[in-house]
């Protein structure tokens, strides 16, 4: 196969490939946003039905895990997975490559090239009925997005022990909240009396009228006090009041922090079960 780096003009093609591969509609605008943070290569194919793409999200400084994706309109093959590994190997900082999949043929190709099963990944959808009590524990208070400072510091602390996602860079997180999909009016934040962020639920709208929640986190010092439950209740109420649905999120199905249990208590139901696979890249320490 002949490959080349993807450019902005490839967004419609990537959207089409991602939709065909996942069964979930991906718009060209979403694909264009994806291109801003991921390294993507597309296959020069003689026919449109043979087109394919691979992508790698580099790790944040101080971390080593990169995230991979592969899309095509046909069954994945050895060359497609090999190209993903080549792209990851050439991406600075990547020592371990993580790919999630639920498709037997794709899993077989991943395992044939050394990927091993790591942990379950669930996509969850809210029942649009369950409510909670949006009362933060004292002395925390609800805050508007315009009051928030130190989001990256809180995010890095909250995600320090997560397996599904390692922290983005400060620049990457800033780009995320500057994206037009970020729904500041649906997102919720908890501030301590000294103005530090104790917890957050970020919400993002999509072209289909739904909402994707995440990143979601509570800094370790405030865990176990109901912060996430209160923020979740507020976010879900805002989403319902704005008539945004479905409300979805993605979570480690065996989260070390128990996040998956929190979401189940708040009315989220598992709608897709994938598995995360890891590969320690050849030649990397």
Q: Can you give a write-up of this model?
A:
With 285 residues, the protein is of the alpha+beta class. The protein is 28% helix and 29% strand. A twelve-stranded mixed β-sheet has the order 1-2-3-4-5-12-6-11-10-9-8-7, sandwiched between helices. Strand 3 and strand 4 (65-72) form a beta hairpin. The mean pLDDT is 90.
How much of the polypeptide forms β-strand, as a percent range? 25-35%
Helix content: 25-40%
For the largest beta sheet, what order do the strands appear in spatially? 1-2-3-4-5-12-6-11-10-9-8-7
What spatial form do the alpha-carbon principal axes imply? globular
Tell me how many strands there are: 12
Determine the mean pLDDT: 90
Order of helices and strands: EHHEEEHEHEEHHEEEHEHE
Spans where pLDDT lies below 50 across 5 or more residues: none
Radius of gyration: 19 Å
Largest sheet data: 12 strands, mixed
Structural class category: alpha+beta
Distance between the termini: 29 Å
User: Given the structure, what is the number of helices?
Assistant: 8
């Amino acid at each position: 196969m002949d490959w080349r780096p993807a450019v902005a003009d490839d967004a419609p093609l990537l959207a089409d490939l991602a939709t065909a591969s996942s069964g979930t509609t991906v718009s060209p605008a979403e694909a264009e946003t994806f291109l801003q943070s991921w390294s993507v290569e597309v296959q020069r194919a003689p026919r449109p039905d043979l087109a394919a793409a691979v992508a790698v999200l580099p790790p944040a400084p101080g971390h080593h895990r990169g995230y991979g994706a592969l899309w095509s309109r046909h069954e994945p093959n050895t060359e497609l997975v090999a190209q993903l590994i080549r792209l990851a190997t050439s991406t600075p900082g990547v020592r371990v490559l993580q790919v999630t999949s639920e498709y037997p043929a794709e899993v077989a190709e991943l395992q044939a090239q050394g990927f091993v099963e790591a942990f379950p990944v669930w996509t969850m959808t809210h029942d649009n009925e369950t409510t909670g009590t949006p009362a933060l524990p004292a002395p925390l208070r609800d805050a508007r997005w315009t009051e928030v400072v130190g989001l990256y510091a809180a995010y890095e602390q909250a995600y320090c022990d997560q397996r599904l996602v390692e922290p983005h860079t400060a620049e990457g997180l800033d780009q995320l909240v500057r994206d037009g999909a970020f729904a500041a009016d649906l997102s919720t934040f908890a501030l301590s009396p000294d103005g530090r962020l104790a917890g957050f639920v970020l919400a993002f709208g999509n072209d289909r009228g739904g909402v994707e929640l995440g990143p979601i986190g509570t800094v370790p010092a405030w865990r176990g006090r109901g912060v996430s439950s209160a923020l979740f209740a507020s976010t879900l109420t805002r989403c319902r009041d704005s008539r945004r649905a479905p409300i979805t999120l993605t979570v480690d199905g065996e989260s070390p922090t128990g996040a998956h249990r929190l979401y189940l208590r708040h009315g989220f139901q598992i709608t897709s079960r994938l598995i995360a696979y890891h590969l320690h890249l050849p030649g990397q320490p």
